[in-house]
TrEMBL record:
Transmembrane segments: none annotated. SUPFAM superfamilies: P-loop containing nucleoside triphosphate hydrolases. CDD domains: ABC_DR_subfamily_A. The keyword Nucleotide-binding applies. The keyword ATP-binding applies. It comes from the Bacteria. GO terms for molecular function: ATP binding; ATP hydrolysis activity. Residues 5-230 form the ABC transporter domain. Pfam families: ABC_tran (PF00005). Keywords: ATP-binding, Nucleotide-binding, Transport. This is Sodium ABC transporter ATP-binding protein.
Length: 287
């Protein structure tokens, strides 16, 4: 079974928000970045995957198993790394481990000790004395020590300094070398995903805008810059969104071949970042 996570036509409605017909797949051996603005549906999606919310419709399969009817089996092989700490703050890292290990049949204490040493986390230090970055590493050590095959990360690098973030990304890159594992990485720090993600799923207003290979996305979308006098009604449709200022215009397109054909060398075409793609697309939705 190559697909470690499969979501088909997933929907969940609230009074003021709806998650509508979500579809995505994540294969073993890959990292999927999950991006979108606040309130887009990222956390709701993760809670539905974890069966912490009741879905309205759709199918969620993890390791080829339904996430509800095989909940216990599925959660045995999922590791979680959240932005917020959910450990008992007064316990040491060793004491906290002694509680958590009882929930997993496949707990490997030798692996836990190895990761603690590798991540430079002392066994006798209280959770509350750990920095945010160290807590993230500790969460990851817990996840890896029960042989989790799917690692779900919710804003794991938020609030970390660049050095800690870089170190965390190196760890994740090392983890994914085991091609039996996969990582579902929800974050608003898109530069992190440009470094390590294989696939990007972009959600906005409860709908998937795209779920594709990262390299394909970065190749498809471009930033176009030029003089405002070049814009008119007939060619503005080639852009996803346009931002004008006193110096000219800047726009996002996923049709650079047509832009080159229409504008020639009168415009400058540059690589778009994931942040550019997200910001311009959100502005387009708001128009």
């Amino acid at each position: 079974m190559n697909n470690i996570l499969e979501i088909s036509n997933l929907s969940k409605s609230y009074k003021d928000f709806s998650l509508t017909d979500l579809n995505l797949t994540l294969e073993r051996g890959y990292i999927m970045g999950f991006i979108g603005p606040n309130g887009a549906g990222k956390s709701t999606t993760i809670k539905l995957i974890m069966n912490l919310l009741r879905k309205d419709s759709g199918i969620i399969k993890i390791f080829g198993l339904d996430n509800i009817s095989h909940e216990r089996t599925v959660k045995e092989k999922i590791g979680f790394v959240y932005d917020e700490n959910h450990f008992y703050e007064e316990l040491t890292t060793e004491e906290m481990k002694n509680i958590l290990c009882r929930f997993y049949k496949s707990w490997d204490n030798n692996s836990f000790n190895k990761y603690l040493a590798e991540f430079s986390i002392p066994k006798d230090k209280k959770i509350k004395a750990l920095s945010k970055g160290m807590k993230m590493k500790y969460s990851l050590a817990i996840a890896l020590s029960h042989n989790a095959e799917l690692i779900i990360m919710d804003e794991p690098t938020s609030g970390l300094d660049p050095v800690f973030r870089s170190e965390m990304l190196d760890i994740l890159h090392s983890v994914i070398q085991d091609e039996n594992k996969a990582i579902f990485f929800s974050t608003h720090i898109t530069t992190d995903l440009e470094k390590i993600a294989d696939y990007i799923t972009f959600i906005n207003n409860g709908r998937i805008i795209f779920s594709k290979e990262k390299d394909e996305i970065l190749e498809s979308y471009k930033i176009v810059k030029g003089d405002k006098s070049l814009l008119h009604k007939d060619n503005s449709n080639y852009f996803i969104n346009i931002r004008e200022n006193s110096f000219g215009f800047e726009a996002l397109t996923n049709n650079s071949a047509q832009i080159t054909k229409v504008f020639g060398d009168k415009v400058l075409i540059e690589r778009a970042s994931l942040e550019d793609i997200m910001v311009y697309s959100i502005r387009s939705d708001k128009r």
